[in-house]
Amino acid sequence: MPLSIDASKLLRPGLTLVVGTIGGTTAYLMKMPLPWMLGPMVFVFAAVMFKAPLESPGKLRPYVIPVIGVMLGSGFDTDTFGHLARWGLSLAGLSLYLACAAALVVPFYIKIGKLDPITAFFSAMPGGLSEMTVIGSAMGGDEKRIILAHAGRILISIALIAFWFRIVLGYEVTGTSPTGNGEILTLKAAVILLGCAVAGTLIGEKLKLPAPGLLGPLLLSAAVHMTGLTHSQPPALLIIAAQIILGATMGSRFRGAEGKLVAQTLLLTFGGTVITLALSLIFALVFHGLFAQSVEQVLLAYAPGGLTEMSLVALAMNAEVAYISIHHLVRIVLIIAIAPTVLTKIASRIGY
Q1: Range 42-63 average pLDDT
Q2: Opening angle at CA 22, ends 16 and 24, nearest 5
């Protein structure tokens, strides 16, 4: 039986990628920060708000996330895990940071946004989008608002942080490694990196890691780079393509939502994100000496952006990717662990 492909099912996601590519190219030519992620995200978001016939290319996401994981793993070196003990205080500080964030942002969502406590809790807490949506909707929260809140949080966090580091501090925030090692990608190195992507994803799923498609390849790539099996990175064009797909997917999450609901949610999310980012900056300014880290690194580690996105910013800045990635992983695990218990108990005490 001949293989048939329904072209109509490919047309809209393909058009979304075209819009995303135009957005990425435009942002790159304008020398914007994180152009290959922010450009597609903003262009696709604007297009779906104007009812353009676009559809999420999300089916490609599982194939490109491992590319990002492998790239991030190349930022590890033999000294990384020797620093874990030194990071102990910084990691412990995350619990205090999350408690402060909950105390400030959840009431903001309830009182200003007029959301019910369950929706407010799962919209305000900076956990993973999919995890917060699944748990929040299961607890009776408004699924659409939770999705919009987290998509908006990631979009706003990336934009504000990227612009802050680029415009205010003068860092290059391109979304690709700023230094590189000049090593040619040989066939052997390509096979090793491909193995990290495929085997890492399978291992991540088997171990039930959060974001297995990212963390599995990241950890396996880190291992091969730390042992010196290779010093290569995925090709730049592949990394750019992965970011275009991720940005376009995030922008298309707003597809089908009413303009009024999106505007209200984004305005509320902007306020909540600014509060959380300000709290991150306060922690960075006050505790960076105690943590033996720079203000910039603590800010990136505590910022409420996504694990993948903040790690990309860290890599672009030539910051310590391992330090920042591990903090975001721990933050997500902590929030997932407390979400079904602590947050719902608080909600019941409020009287809902």
Answers
A1: 88
A2: 100
